[in-house]
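--- STAGE predict ---
source: upstream dedup step, 1 unique chain passed
mode: sequence only
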Amino acid sequence: MEALCVVHASSPVGQLSLMASSKGLVRLEFQSRVRSIPGAELHESKSALKPYLDELEQYFSGERREFSLPLDLRGTPFQLKCWNALLTIPYGETRTYGEMARAIGHPIAFRAVGMANNRNPVAIIVPCHRVIASSGSLCGYGGGLDIKSKLLELEGAIPCAPGLTLPLFA
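--- STAGE serialize ---
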């Protein structure tokens, strides 16, 4: 049985759950989407995940644009190709599902790219929130469109609503 460290933390976009192996971050999920990992034994450890929490806090405060800690992404070869392509989208920019499909060499697979994004196990850090519809609309997001909008506003990819502020971690 694999041992994973887990922590639950408040953030400006709601409660987050983080899980890490000895290789890196396995999951960063919104409370509404927490999924189990078959064969994993979870151990609560805020200290083990503190570096990830620190980088997330820096991101939410506007001090960090790129994450530097290791990831332990687990998925099909196609999903991994999609998730690695997401990591190339710069902070504050968006791409369409069609652009992402072309970027991974499958130009007509935009729906499959959307499904891979939906299965992204590491929200925010693997920035599927930066992928939008070709019409410019936000469309689907596992954490909900409100959270997607807040993340894109934080990054300056869409205009911020007047008076909107994002508090730091509680």
